[in-house]
Amino acid sequence: MIVKRQVRQWLCFVGFSCFMMNAVANDSQLLDKVIAIVDDDIVMLSELDSRVRSISSRLGGQGTPLPPREVLEKRVLNQLILESIQLQKADFAGIRISDSQLNQTLANIARSNKMTLEQFEAQLASEGESYASAREQIRREMVITRVQQRELDRRVQVSQQEIDNFLASKEGRQQTGTEYYIGHILIAMSESASEENQAAVTARAEKVLAELKAGADFQEIAVANSDGRQALNGGVIGWRKENELPSIAADILPSLEVRQPSELIRSGSGFHIITALEKRGGTEQMVQQRQVRHILVSPNEIRSDAQAKEIIDKLYERVTQGDDFAEIARSNSDDPVSAIDGGELGWVSPGQMVPEFEQVMLDTTIGKVSEPFKSSFGWHILRVEDARDQDIGAMLQANQARQVIQGRKYEEELSKWILEIRSESFIDIKDEAYALDEEV
Q1: How far apart are CA 218 and CA 231, in angstroms?
Q2: What is the Cα–Cα distance from 279 to 245, expressed in whole angstroms?
Q3: C-beta atoms surrounding 353 within 10 Å
Q4: How far apart are CA 295 and CA 52, in angstroms?
Q5: Which of 69, 109, 148, 324 has its CA 20 to 30 A from that of 160?
Q6: From edge to edge, which strands make up the β-sheet containing 179-188?
Q7: CB–CB of 72/66 below 8 Å?
Q8: Which residues lie across from 36 on neighbouring strands?
Q9: Rounded to whole angstroms, how far apart are CA atoms 236 and 62?
Q10: Residue 402 near residue 166 (C-beta atoms within 8 A)
Q11: What are the beta bridge partners of residue 346?
């Protein structure tokens, strides 16, 4: 405590010195001052003003009404204080974000907004924010996320019993049940149609069904024959959960195989044929998995992208000349988890890898090594060891249930933890105008 007290005194002195120097330099304008001391850190007025401007600009751009200036400043100051506490905890725990990790995150943010990094930087500038300040704020947020995860992963546990209870509940069945991508064909017939017309329409409907059973494409047949509203969309109704199925499909779709047409279903509007063009979720979901090894070479602070490409090319040449893939991966791969196991990624399911990796994986023959290719993580080569069809439905259901339960517990524990660390911290607001209300 003596050390902390000395640090705080030093921070106060530095803050006062900065204030006096600024006052001497221009006694008509106050340039900066300490707003708050937070344990061994300080929050400056310039930080507060910058964050207030940034938030005001963003909310204004969204058309969101702003609260009074003094209310917004107090809210933002509270945010800065909480950030400071968490960043100090991260620093104590040795949590760091490397430039390569930060660059990757920025690239992903730009990509998710359908921009290049240059376009993303230009967009920030148009909103009055510099790329450098945005970059630093994102680094802070990444560090804070890491320290939160480090602390809360120890607190948030989900038992198998909680998963089972969730899956058995009405909510669980709704969230994790089977979804159907429904195809629908209607051969319309009026209830008042003559016997002759009824016979003709029935014959037409039976002909359409026979073509489907013989293997004709459902969507092509729908475009050419259906009288339904979605005919020109291939008869596609879209994804529906099991509890959201149309009444004519509720008792039929669950028993059909994918793309298997139903029998003719008679209603007041005519004859219906339905099918599940695709299924997902539920207790049964067959996918083709591939067993894969890979080697990753990533650009970093001392290695350019071109140098990473040169290294992966040389490793590819060694592999194609007969050197052991696993040994090369152990010695050279920048993926620390898989490198220990000779680049082994295990059985990979669709959607588990980034798109660039998955496409090369699907295009590579079993037992063969891909040519070098680039993903958002760097340069890779991969080898497909084997392939298999696997039912992962039950596993996906359990994972989905775990994520829902974990997310709820995480938010609850995060709120508790924030209150704890704030109450344990030394916080001294240096200007009464910014004193925080109790509920802030």
Answers
A1: 11
A2: 13
A3: 19
A4: 45
A5: 148
A6: 236-241, 179-188, 270-280, 265-267
A7: yes
A8: 43, 429
A9: 35
A10: no
A11: 292
Task: State how far Cα 288 lies from the chain centre.
Answer: 23
Q: Which residue has the tokens 């298999």?
A: 388
Cα–Cα dist 254/178, whole Å: 9
SS3 93: helix
Burial level of 143, CB count in 10 A (0-12/13-18/19+)? buried
Spatial CA neighbour of 8 closest among 43, 39, 36: 39
* Residues 218 and 261 sit within 8 Å (Cβ to Cβ): yes
Per-residue pLDDT of the chain (440 residues; tens, 9 = 90+): 333 333 344 444 334 444 443 444 444 345 789 999 999 999 999 999 989 988 888 888 788 888 899 899 999 999 999 999 999 999 999 998 888 888 888 888 888 888 888 888 888 888 777 888 888 889 999 999 999 999 998 889 999 999 989 888 877 777 777 888 999 999 999 888 898 999 999 999 999 999 999 999 999 999 999 999 899 999 999 998 877 788 888 889 888 999 999 999 999 889 999 999 988 766 656 778 899 999 999 998 889 999 999 999 999 999 999 999 999 999 999 998 999 999 999 999 888 899 999 999 999 999 999 999 999 899 999 999 999 987 767 777 788 888 889 888 998 899 999 999 999 999 999 888 878 765 44
Residue type, 422: R
- Residue 258 gets which letter from DSSP? B
In the chain the first and final C-alpha atoms are separated, in Å, by 27
Could you tell me which of 287, 186, 181 has the C-alpha nearest to residue 242?
181
Domains and CATH numbers, the chain: 95-143 (1.10.4030.10), 178-280 (3.10.50.40), 286-391 (3.10.50.40)
Sequence-distant (6+) residues with CB within 8 A of 375 are: 354, 356, 357
Give the helix/strand (H/E) hosting 374.
Answer: strand 373-375
Nearest CA-CA partner of 184 in 280, 252, 286: 252
The length of the chain, given as a count of residues: 440
Task: Say if pTM beats, i.e. exceeds, 0.90.
Answer: no
CA 364, CA 383: separation in Å to the nearest integer? 8
Q: What are the distances in angstroms from CA 377 to CA 82, 133, 241, 281?
A: 32, 24, 35, 29
